[in-house]
């Protein structure tokens, strides 16, 4: 499938294939650390995908083990299957992106929290919570805080849940995981408040935004819905999305009647806070944003489905089993159809970037080189060049500096051909390749002439 835009940013931080891309304020260094065992010595996307897929499967297995003793094994297996069979999970599990790792950290952390509360003599769940919190914060510090709000509130405000070693483990894990991000904020962004503000600006400004309908539109396989316009997809695509809160509420009722409220209430509360900013605080959508919420709600939903089958009267049980099985089969079929179409569309886009990179090589744009303009980040990575911008949230140079660099280094400006190029490139040679108008710096033409 090739590497996507965000993936090239993360992988370039540790890869020898291309210079490191601009690292914007919201990003954290967890993903580069995750891919370093492969990306630091190999440029093979296939090898990286296999590594991440195996790691994702192992991580999900370990996260589910943290819940052993809280729910029957069959419920945990079903919950894991429900989460793992979502197209968004299958799509992003083997990708160099942070959201799946945050989901795994949230799932394991809540399980460890509940086990530590039920048996305070055990130390393993306390350490498990610390490690899970550190993993989340290492990948996306702000997401980690949102997911842990109910845990922090319970440890501080609910007397019977106060467990100081657990509070220290949770806060310590968050601090340990986010430590590098905070230090980098002061070294490279002018301080923590400045980095948070810059991160908010990069996402269009955080504030009250109704993004629920945007998330619905993205469920058809739109990996980034920005701007999120158009009609809603076929109801069959998002029916499961509306079934989740219904089944979650039913699971909570079952848990209350069974006297095990906390085991269901805590993951649902964490799922709600993890989803809140992406449903109500940003003006666009990406289905991967809700992966932590899906992971946390999966076990309560699985418990609800199991109860529907096992609690039905004996005469109605075959009917209940048939209805649940048919519902799950239809859900799985829809997920696989969306997954196939998303992969096909994404692969075509990434191959377009690769063809443009090859065209740049044929034109004489070879390392060391710079690429700016539309889709410059992934195309530059594919070409082995640096990606630069003179404006916007990813600005890392100026027009004056780029003009000077272009005198001695190959520079390519990518445009769609519908507008004028930047002022500094108006006198450069232009060619049309792969549907783009490419402006080549004097250094490119000089090198080409010398080679000829």
Q: What would you call the structural class?
A: mainly alpha
Total E-strand runs: 5
Helix content: 55-70%
Oligomer: single chain
Distance between the termini: 36 Å
> The biggest beta sheet, please?
5 strands, mixed
Mean pLDDT: 93
Total of helices: 18
Shape: globular
Radius of gyration: 24 Å
Give the neighbour order of strands across the main sheet: 2-1-3-5-4
Structure description:
The chain is mainly α. It has 18 helices and 5 strands. The protein has helices at 5-12, 30-39, 45-65, 73-84, 87-92, 99-118, 124-139, 141-157, 164-188, 192-202, 212-218, 235-258, 261-280, 291-310, 317-363, 376-383, 399-406, 442-451; strands spanning 370-373, 386-387, 411-415, 429-433, 436-440. It has a 5-stranded mixed sheet with strand order 2-1-3-5-4, sandwiched between helices. Strand 1, helix 16 and strand 2 form a beta-alpha-beta unit. Helix 6 (99-118) runs antiparallel to helix 7. The longest helix is centred in the C-terminal third of the chain and has 47 residues, at 317-363. The radius of gyration is 24 Å and the shape is globular. The two termini are 36 Å apart. The mean pLDDT is 93.
């Amino acid at each position: 499938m090739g590497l996507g835009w965000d993936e090239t940013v993360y992988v370039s931080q540790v890869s020898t294939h291309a210079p490191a891309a601009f690292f914007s304020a919201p990003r954290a260094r967890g993903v580069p650390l995750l891919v370093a065992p492969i990306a630091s010595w190999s440029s093979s996307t296939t090898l990286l995908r296999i590594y991440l897929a195996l790691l994702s499967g192992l991580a999900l297995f370990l996260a589910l083990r943290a819940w052993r003793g809280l729910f029957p094994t069959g419920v945990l297996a079903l919950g894991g299957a429900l989460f793992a069979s979502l197209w968004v999970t299958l799509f992003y599990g083997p990708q160099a992106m942070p959201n799946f790792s945050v989901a795994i950290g949230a799932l394991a952390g809540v399980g460890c929290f509940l086990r530590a509360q039920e048996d305070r003599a055990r130390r393993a769940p306390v350490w498990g919570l610390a490690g899970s919190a550190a993993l989340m914060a290492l990948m996306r510090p702000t997401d980690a805080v949102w997911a842990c709000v109910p845990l922090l509130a319970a440890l501080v405000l609910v007397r019977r849940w106060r467990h100081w070693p657990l509070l220290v483990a949770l806060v310590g894990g968050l601090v340990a995981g986010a430590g590098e991000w905070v230090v980098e904020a002061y070294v490279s962004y002018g301080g923590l408040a400045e980095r948070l503000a810059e991160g908010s600006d990069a996402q269009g400004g955080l504030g009250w935004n109704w993004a629920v309908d945007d998330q619905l539109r993205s469920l058809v396989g739109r990996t980034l819905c920005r701007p999120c316009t158009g009609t809603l997809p076929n109801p069959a695509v998002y029916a499961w999305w509306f079934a989740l809160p219904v089944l979650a509420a039913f699971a909570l009722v079952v848990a209350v009647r069974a006297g095990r409220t906390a085991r269901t209430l805590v993951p649902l509360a964490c799922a709600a806070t993890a989803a809140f900013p992406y449903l109500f605080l940003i003006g666009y959508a990406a289905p991967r944003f809700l992966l932590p919420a899906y992971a946390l709600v999966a076990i309560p939903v699985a418990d609800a489905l199991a109860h529907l089958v096992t609690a039905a009267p004996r005469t109605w049980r075959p009917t209940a089993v048939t209805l649940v099985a048919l519902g799950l089969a239809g859900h799985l079929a829809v997920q696989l159809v969306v997954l196939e179409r998303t992969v096909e569309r994404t692969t075509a886009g990434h191959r377009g970037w690769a063809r443009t990179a090859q065209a740049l090589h044929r034109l004489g744009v070879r390392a060391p080189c710079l690429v700016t303009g539309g889709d410059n980040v992934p195309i530059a990575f594919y070409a082995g060049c640096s990606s630069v911008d003179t404006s916007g949230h990813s600005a890392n140079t100026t027009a004056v500096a780029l003009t000077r660099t272009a005198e001695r280094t190959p520079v390519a400006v990518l445009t769609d051909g519908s507008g004028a190029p930047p002022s500094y490139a108006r006198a450069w040679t232009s060619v049309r390749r792969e549907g783009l108008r490419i402006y080549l710096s004097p250094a490119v033409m000089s090198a080409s002439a010398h080679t000829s």
